[in-house]
Design goal:
The protein has ten helices and no strands. By secondary structure, the chain is mainly alpha-helical.
Length: 231
């Protein structure tokens, strides 16, 4: 549960960097979540339904950034909630409930993506053979002349597979920040709040993760890739 969190408290606490109103709102959200968790532990199934209502769309959106398919993202979010339900006793409150279930969702989404691309790799020869036949037909045959060429399909598949492999090889801490920043599009401040680390730690982890991913994808990328702006 604590794998996304800092190993030690940041020099400046997150609460000191947030406006008082935002701090109070965030604390209220966490208090409500903890109350719902306690009710769930006592056997109140309605509390679980309320947790699903509070976070389902956010988790679907987070999963969608990894799996790239809305139906798969919904399935991942549902599986994450079921896993959280079965393991609610292991939630200790050291992080927010959302941080805890977000990590579950992220790991499930990455696992699903890896399995999907293993399957696509096995069936790739069949699919490219079909595309060759499809693109060879002229307009009178009723087929499109603009079907994706096999070499283009292979190139895209290779890049995505290499990316997913590199992403899965990152530590949970580094994987979380790269997905939150580059896929979910959160600001450094938002990531800092979510994973309970200082902005400096988030930026350091992002730098490390980007370097690892760039190294894995260097043959597909331009020579000079600028860092994202600091916001």
């Amino acid at each position: 549960m604590g794998a996304l969190l800092c190993e030690s408290a940041p020099f400046f606490g997150v609460s000191e960097m947030r406006p008082a109103r935002a701090q109070a709102k965030a604390q209220n959200v966490e208090d409500v979540d903890l109350s719902l968790v306690e009710r769930l532990r006592e056997g109140d199934r309605s509390a679980f339904r309320k947790l699903v209502e509070r976070y389902q769309q956010r988790l679907v959106a987070a999963a969608l950034g990894v799996v790239g398919n809305y139906q798969d993202a919904e399935d991942v979010a549902q599986e994450a909630f079921l896993k959280a339900f079965r393991n609610i006793g292991s939630f200790r409150g050291q992080s927010s409930f959302y941080t805890w279930i977000y990590r579950i969702t992220l790991n499930l989404a990455i696992d699903l993506s890896r399995k999907a691309y293993r399957r696509s790799e096995r069936s790739f020869e069949d699919s490219t053979a079909g595309n060759q036949e499809y693109s060879s037909k002229d307009g009178d045959g009723g087929f499109s002349a603009h079907a994706e060429q096999p070499d283009e399909q292979l190139h895209r598949a290779e890049i995505r597979q290499r990316f997913l492999r590199a992403l899965s090889e990152l530590s949970p801490q580094h994987r979380a920040v790269i997905v939150l920043r580059e896929i979910d599009g959160l600001s450094y401040a938002e990531i800092s709040d979510l994973v309970a680390c200082s902005k400096g730690t988030v930026m350091s982890r992002l730098h490390h993760a980007r370097k690892r991913l760039q190294k894995a994808l260097e043959e597909y990328l331009p020579d000079d890739i600028p860092e994202s702006d600091e916001n």
